[in-house]
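Supplementary notes for students who missed Thursday's class. We covered one full example, reproduced here. Read the sequence, then the structure, then the short commentary at the end.
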Amino acid sequence: MAFGHWLRKNAEKHLQEAAADDLMSRYPESCEKPYREKGLDHFFWRNIFVPVYLMIPWSIRKKIILASSYPGGKRPHWKKYN
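Structure (token representation):
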């Protein structure tokens, strides 16, 4: 598995868990406490990666996502058809 794929997979998983935890804190009567895996790697993703990622402004996050999504930064440019 390529590093970018591994990073994206783990980031998506833990960001989704963080969003679910946020919903649970807002609506505790409607949500069950979910199972969370334990371990040092999960501790890093939950307690370090997610808060740092959420502190980064969207404009910078967007540039990071685009740069990591397309190797060499060669993003396709689509033509608009009317």
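Commentary. Residues 3-71 form one domain. The chain has one domain: 3-71. If anything here is unclear, bring it to office hours.
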